[in-house]
Inverse folding.
């Protein structure tokens, strides 16, 4: 045990001297998690997953505008009314062109009256001649920022059309109720015999309800998409695996300088040297995760992002961090013994880590990849660690749900350690 502690202290002293390397190891994941999370948060706004500001100029100031606001209240549209500052459609168009608002909508004066007249005329022409095309038609002007994504534009248009269609349907049902009331009166049928007064309310009642739940829990709701809970562990994991290259570099430096041979001449096993290096770099990986986690917990809320939290199952999170660190260190040991120069180790190591991160879902979610790539993602160690993090932090699963991923990380560590040990024995 004393030999392992001595070997670990040696590695920590060497790491302390390499301040530039430590700065890169800690600065890289910190910058990546901030930049990527901010970009994804902005993409959520552009794709309609967050509320979109709609600039409304209500020149009518009647029931149409009131009903439209009520219909859009539960949608991902935030209505901003500038009735006092905006006077014409040109003003709205200029305001949208600046990019401060994504959508502009104008309700012309007299729209509520025109809507009622069109609904009445439609009913009359349908009853009399069977023609359901009204002579009157109400036109609302809508403006879109040219810079918004087509998907967001289509989604907003669909929401507006659905809201206006519901308002028009209510108006038609109301007129139909009045006509039925007149007919009932003419036939001498008592008004209480038919629910004419509540016709609109009765028809508007939904017959189906979508109940979103998990594990049969009726009242449970899926949590909203949170880029912080996904990006913090993902990019912390990415930075942890990058420690494999400095670890391989330390082995190559010792081999090149002859220190490795002198250490081997001592009553000291290479396994002890390996364990000392692993413990030292596991400490570095744990510090990396703590740094990125603190950024997510305290910096992100200050810049308008959700806070990162591991309160659900901190023990399981720490176990995933520890085993992921072991996997990264095992890969570093293998690189240090398999390569002959630092250039080979850095090129092979960085390429393998970036490819593994891309394949494992760190950069692009696995479900967004082609089917072949989704099947190949299972070979990525970063995919195992990321899946374990997401199961705990995002899906709220228990520790039992991630045993398979933890087992893969552990097996990967022992396999790379075994390969490195065999390479040491082959070089004797």
């Amino acid at each position: 045990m004393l030999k392992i502690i001595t070997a670990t202290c040696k590695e920590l002293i060497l790491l302390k001297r390499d301040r530039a390397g430590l700065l890169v190891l800690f600065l890289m994941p910190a910058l990546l998690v901030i930049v990527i999370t901010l970009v994804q948060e902005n993409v959520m706004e552009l794709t309609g997953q967050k509320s979109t500001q709609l600039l409304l100029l209500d020149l009518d100031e009647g029931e149409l505008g009131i009903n439209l606001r009520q219909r859009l209240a539960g949608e991902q549209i935030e209505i901003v009314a500038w009735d006092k500052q905006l006077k014409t459609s040109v003003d709205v168009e200029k305001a949208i062109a600046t990019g401060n608002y994504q959508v502009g909508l104008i309700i012309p004066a007299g729209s509520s009256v025109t809507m009622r007249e069109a609904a009445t005329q439609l009913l009359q022409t349908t009853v009399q001649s069977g023609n359901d095309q009204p002579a009157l038609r109400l036109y609302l002007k809508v403006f879109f920022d040219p810079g918004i994504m087509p998907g967001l534009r289509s989604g907003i248009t669909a929401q507006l059309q659905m809201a206006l269609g519901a308002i028009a349907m209510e108006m038609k049902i109301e007129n139909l109720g009045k006509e039925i009331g007149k007919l009932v009166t003419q036939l001498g049928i008592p008004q209480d015999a038919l629910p004419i007064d509540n016709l609109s309310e009765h028809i508007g009642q939904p017959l189906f309800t979508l109940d979103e739940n998990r594990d049969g829990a009726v009242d449970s709701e899926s949590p909203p998409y949170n880029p912080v809970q996904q990006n913090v562990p993902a990019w912390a994991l990415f930075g942890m695996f990058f420690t494999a290259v400095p670890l391989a570099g330390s082995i190559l430096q010792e081999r090149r300088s002859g220190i490795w041979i002198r250490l081997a001449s001592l009553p000291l096993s290479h396994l002890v040297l390996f364990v000392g290096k692993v413990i030292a770099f596991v400490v570095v990986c744990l510090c990396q995760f703590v740094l990125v986690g603190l950024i997510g917990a305290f910096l992100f809320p200050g810049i308008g992002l959700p806070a990162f939290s591991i309160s659900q199952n901190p023990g399981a999170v720490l176990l995933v961090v520890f085993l992921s660190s072991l996997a990264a260190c095992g890969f570093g040991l293998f690189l240090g013994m398999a390569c002959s120069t630092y250039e080979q180790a850095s090129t092979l190591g960085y390429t393998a880590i970036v490819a593994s991160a891309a394949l494992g879902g760190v950069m692009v979610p696995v479900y967004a990849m082609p089917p072949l790539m989704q099947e190949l993602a299972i070979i990525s160690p970063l995919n195992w660690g990321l899946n374990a993090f997401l199961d705990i932090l995002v899906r709220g699963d228990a520790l039992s749900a991630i045993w398979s991923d933890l087992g893969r990380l552990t097996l990967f560590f022992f396999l790379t350690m075994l390969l490195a040990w065999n390479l040491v024995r082959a070089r004797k």
